[in-house]
Amino acid sequence: MLRLKSCLCVGLGLFFLASCSTAKKTTVLQSPQTAVINPAKVVEETKVIIDSVPVGSQLANQAARVAGALDSVPLTPEEQARLIYNSGIHKEYDYAQAMHFDWRKPQYVMIHHTSQSSTAQTIRTFQLPHTKVSSHYVIGRDGRVVQMLNDYIRAWHAGRGKWGQITDMNSISLGIELDNNGREPFPEAQINSLLILLDTLKTRYNIPQINFIGHSDFAPGRKDDPSVFFPWDKLAARGFGIWYNESYLLPAPATFNPIDALKLIGYDMKNQEAAIRAFKKKYVKTDLTGQLTDRDKAIIYDLYRKYY
Ligand SMILES: [Zn+2]
What we know:
Blueprint: H1 8-18, H2 39-50, H3 56-66, H4 77-87, E1 108-113, H5 119-127, E2 137-139, E3 145-147, E4 173-178, H6 188-205, E5 212-214, H7 215-218, H8 232-237, H9 258-265, H10 272-283, H11 294-307
Parallel strand pairs: 1-4, 1-5, 2-4
Antiparallel strand pairs: 2-3
Bound molecules: zinc ion.
Zinc ion binds next to loops.
């Protein structure tokens, strides 16, 4: 058995590198004159791999634990890495490991507020087995940032929802929870830490400005965080998310269709009123009805012209 280190990222990497396949299944698809892969070498190398792939009862044990049969003994990151790796290989096909790859990177950032009363309480929530929720980062009112999951791991923060054509937001996003009960402003220290973190994430993963969104954008009607106190204007000024020109709004032309524009921005218009309310809670804040006023339409028109 390979002895993998505790870091899941390293574990995943080592495992991925080491465990292409078994000697039995490996088939080199290139023609013999292709110099890229030497069949003998590949087969020989895969002999090492056989020991690293969980087989038989070991794999069955892990599967049972994943299914919850042995919930009291949580999977180690290494076991999870092995299960994920195995489930990503289609055993009905031949397999020839390509040599160039890296890891899929997050392309969205979703902001939440915790609706809890302290960072410690949120951390506890994310560490209890029955809650089934998590996020990558928690930021306290004092600006302290606690990372709770590796950026490359899929956190359970977004849940059901739709943004554009994306339904599985957890698979492509990072979740950031701000310690806030939903009825209070966000302290400056907390927002400053958030801005620094967002800057790091945006640069490292090349995340587009429009892909910094709130939970309520993705799940209107079901989620309402972050609250109306959240300073989206301040974030947009730094390149995270979008905001309109408050000092000069052009009236939307008669031919402009604000519903289509909201759809283009990303909102799921299946429940039109809920989507409009989510939009207004973010951009208008004072009027949270499900109808669009002329000013609301002008805001949508401005966003549409600026970003889309
Ligand atoms: Zn949320």
